[in-house]
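Continuing the series of single-chain predictions for the mutant panel. This is the parent chain; the variants come on the following pages.
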Amino acid sequence: MRSPAVCISGIGYTKFSRSTQASLASLALEASLNAIADAGLRVDQVDGLVCYHQNDSVLVRDVSTSLGIKELRWWSDFLAGGTFNCAVIAQAAMAIEAGLANYVVCYRALRGRSGKRMGRYRASLTDGVHQFMTPFGFSTPAQIFGMTCRRHMHEYGTTRAQLGYVAVIERTHAGLNDRAMRRDPLTMEQYLGGRVIADPYTLFDCCQETDGACAVVLTRADRARSAPHPPVYVLGAVHGGGDVPRVPFDGWRDLSVSAFPRLATELYARAGVGPKDIDVALLYDAFTFEVIQQLEDFGFCKPGEGGPFVEDGNIGLAGSLPVNPHGGLLSEAYIHGLNHIIEAVQQLRIEAGDRQVSGADIALVTGFGFCAGSAIVLGGASAGS
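Parent structure:
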């Protein structure tokens, strides 16, 4: 494995809540400034800025002006959702390796509870393919992704209780995380009694609606030697899809398998690692089943064995593959998956406190969209030696 050229040198975030009084611009600025300070930089050293969003964030041009960046050498605004949390890191890494920028800030700010909520998208989804979906109540993520879960249940006998283990274990992790939105204990009885959102998903199968922001600073590994924190290295990344890279997945060959088996093969080859080398996994968990599906698709267990793998306790902090030690999107917060990157960095810096995974040195992070997605492998101290 070649020496990694790019690393994450700073992270920042805001408070996660359901009712912030801050504007989107304020959230983006706060997270970005926190990340820049964490990297030991001045704002005038930042020369790259990138964001991804679904028309629910503040644009790079406005954040750049508000930050007072003197010379913006490279920037991008990507219209993208949950598939892009790892892709945005890869985009910044590519810009740095190409010499287009020296210090790039990636940020994501949204008001997912007090602002633009998913359930309010319906009126705007009447163009293109959505005109054939929305009239039949097939428009929000829970309705769409619940379909893939139901297919897996049909094919392999995956149970609601197995989905419940994902929710209960991640809530247990969140109880150790001061910034998590939901730290109250969740029992299996409570999970099974949750009100239905979109069958088979109930309230506890769905991620948090969140107001907040996260930001990450990337630079060349040699530039990070004097940074306040140990660098976290970008070992490999992928971003892509299959032959049907969008909803409603009507041409997809097998709804029990996502695009990740192909992408995982590429990712492991680029990073020079395999499933057995992963110490901690930050799996995109907008819904409980996505964790089960990705455990199979990334080779941690065989197809159909994801449910029993979770049921056996393997994704707990003391399990064979700790998953989402911060509580994930289900219990920490939903910042479109960029908070997964924050947690991966803290784990690899050995800064996660009571939720620290013992011996964490290689982390997998994913961004899930079923027929498309992104993923990244990050390395700690040993990767730079």
